[in-house]
């Protein structure tokens, strides 16, 4: 499903930083052309996604941009994991991307709270 893939792409870019089209295509299990079409779709939706040419190039989000897709509570994340085990409709990359983002976000929040003490 394309919506799942767009969200997965967005989460990969947010969590991993600049990435090559080939790497994204491999992780999403699609062609390079599909990744480029999806990047265009994200850009058309107002998401600040850019591509840089050259050896150090790749696809990236504008620095400082972050989505709130990873704002699930631990209970919601657990429920999503349970549902993904039962459902064959959800792509594993989508579920793993969301769950991974939730865990990283929670760790970041805990680190920030600990540093503020």
Structure at a glance:
The chain is mostly helical and 117 residues long. The chain has helices spanning 2-16, 21-28, 32-44, 74-86, 92-116; strands at residues 49-52, 58-61. It has a two-stranded antiparallel sheet.
Fold and architecture overview:
The chain is mostly helical and 117 residues long. It has five helices and two strands, in the order αααββαα. The chain has helices spanning 2-16, 21-28, 32-44, 74-86, 92-116; strands spanning 49-52, 58-61. The protein has a two-stranded antiparallel ribbon. The longest helix has 25 residues, at 92-116.
Keywords summarizing the entry:
two-stranded antiparallel sheet; single chain; 117 residues; 5 helices; 2 strands; mainly alpha; 7% strand
Average pLDDT value?
Answer: 77
* Bulk shape: globular
Estimated share of beta-strand residues: 5-15%
> Quick one: biggest sheet?
2 strands, antiparallel
Helix content: 55-70%
Secondary-structure map:
Elements: H1 2-16, H2 21-28, H3 32-44, E1 49-52, E2 58-61, H4 74-86, H5 92-116
Antiparallel strand pairs: 1-2
């Amino acid at each position: 499903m394309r919506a799942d893939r767009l969200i997965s792409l967005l989460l990969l870019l947010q969590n991993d930083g600049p990435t090559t089209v080939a790497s994204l295509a491999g992780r999403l299990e699609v062609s390079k052309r599909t990744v480029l079409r999806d990047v265009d779709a994200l850009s058309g939706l107002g998401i600040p996604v850019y591509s840089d040419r050259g050896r150090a190039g790749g696809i990236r989000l504008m620095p400082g941009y972050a989505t709130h897709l990873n704002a699930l509570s631990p209970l919601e994340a657990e429920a999503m994991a349970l549902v993904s085990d039962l459902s064959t409709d959800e792509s594993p990359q989508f579920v793993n991307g969301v769950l991974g983002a939730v865990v990283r976000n929670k760790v970041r929040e805990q680190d920030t709270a600990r540093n503020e003490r």
